[in-house]
Amino acid sequence: MKIDITYPPAEKSGQWRRSMLAAVKWPMLAAAAICPIVNYFVGGKAWSVIVLVGLFAAWRFIFSIDLVEYNRISQIIKILTFACIILGLVDILLVPGWALFVVPIVCTVGLGVAALLFFSDLEKQEHNAFPFLLLIFYAIAGSVVGLHYKHGDGRWTLMLMGAVAAGLLVLCIVIMGSGFFRELRRRFHLR
Amino acid sequence: MKITTVAEFEEYVIRLEPEEREKLEAFFSEFNLHCSMSFVEKTALRQDFERALLYYAKTGVSLDDALELLAMRNLGGFYARPPLLWFPLDDAAKIYPFSMEHGKMAVFRLSTYLKKDVVPELLQMALDFTIKRFPSFATTLKKGFFWHYLDTTKRRFSVEEEHLPPCMPLHVGRSGSQSFRVIYWKNRISVECFHVLTDGTGGLEFLKALTAEYLRLCGVQIPESEYIADVNKTPDTEEMENAFARVPHAAEASGFAGKPAVQMSGKLSKCKPCRVFHFRLDATALAEAARRHGATVTAYVMAMMFVAEKAATDAVKGEAVFQVPVNMRKFYPSKTVRNFALYCGIRMPFKDTTDVDAILPAIDAQLKEKASKEAMSSMLTAAERLVNSLAIVPLVIKFPVAHMVYGFLGDRMFSNIMSNLGVVKMPKEMEEHIESMDAVLGTVSISRAACTMVSACNVATLTIAKLTMDPTFEEKMLELFQKEGLEVKVEGSEIYED
User: Which pLDDT does position B408 carry in this prediction?
Assistant: First the structure.
């Protein structure tokens, strides 16, 4: 067939992530399968659960990044969520008794970083407010639940997290004004 | 704040007469009124004007004429206002975000071939002026709690020289990223759209408006016409509507599921598509040939495709199923430039696929029945029921399930696609500068070919986007066209496989 070529030679850059995903997929799946087996036969604490969550976090951060809403706010929140889950699991499965003190501190720092990123470029980040608002909501909810269950020393970290989150929520409403409610309408539409 | 200028433009300004310099200053003062974006975007937009002015100066267009062509009224208020609009995805678009993967995205391309090479500086300006007319295109995909949606983004949308295979995935994740791309190569202007934005008809409206604006900037006088959207007219609300919502429900709902179709036997390529072919035919001769067979052009070409499909597979039993998108605007007139198309499946058992004449009546009959208003209404009712039943399921749950279901079904139900966008109408003054148009589908992942057909300026172009290196299908198609006495000019790409 005689063809007039009317297209330029193509660059080979577009598919690198897909190739990388194909290359690391099976080694990671193998690791995910082997760890619980080794853990089961060696016995002891369930460290393999933490390895599995770690592998999943690595997969989501390095190899299979978000296709929609890959922005600085959403990524900070993702890091924070995985960090808190891993810290919580370490507490539950390996060394108990400290997570309710440490996790709120980590969350408060995370809230601070997310707030800095959000308010420093408000015009653009206003359209990424939802993940930030979700983080605030989770922090307030976590604080209320934590304070309900935790008694004695070390409650101040939970109070701090709740107070910072509530303060940021008020700040968001004041600064974003009608944009705050518009963002909620967009994000919660049903049709 | 001082806006950076193109270095060459500064030299050009120095050489101007004082009164010309004053005119230019007044021109850019007006620019500041029309643009209140971030510094980076504002600079980029201003530089577009500078490059266009330089181009006009180099080609001997007077400054007065250049300033008139680039007049600030063409920017409108688009770049001066904050991005407040948002659009829920229409019923057909809701599935596309669920089907996305790294390296896989439902993207299609529409192209216009001009009689002269494209001037990138003017194409960029044409896009800067056209985008305001299509607010639903100036959007970024976002995640809601229940559904994805399109969020308006105000930025300078860029034009690029073609350097990738057609229909490569767009990076829509970043804040304010484009959900479409405008690319050029020699005399070709192409628009590649993520399907969440629009369908072929809406995409054609955008491409025609962009091309008309580009030609205007080249000095071509195109009269106002019902076929071309006036880029300086305020967009009609109807153009942005989810037109599916206006369609009355059918009594019965018919589902989408079906058994997997037989595919061509060639090995799937890594790069999708791995090659593109454009068969250019005389539209009148093609219509005449179809008439001789007593069929529509779509049915006639599909009959050839079924024969070619059979030649390209080793399977001896089973059936080939072709997906045929159906433009709902023909049943429910709408000005929407968003998705308003459904599809039907035309089936043909391999044992019955002997030659074109033998299968044409069956294909024609199936097309009449399955692409009818009633059949489409039933499918739409099923789609609406599905959407309604999933409405209150949070996206975080819906996404993995829908992604898995889509991955399982995908386009396995179809062996091929035949999307006929029909005859593109435009004013005679515009046609004089256009050679042809075509469309490329990048929406399939299992089917080894996806075909589209567009007729413009009496050139009918059948495009075959291939997902396998096996050349049997296109060779058989060419043979069948030639056997019918139709002259075919074949254009296309090299093989993209690495």
Answer: 73
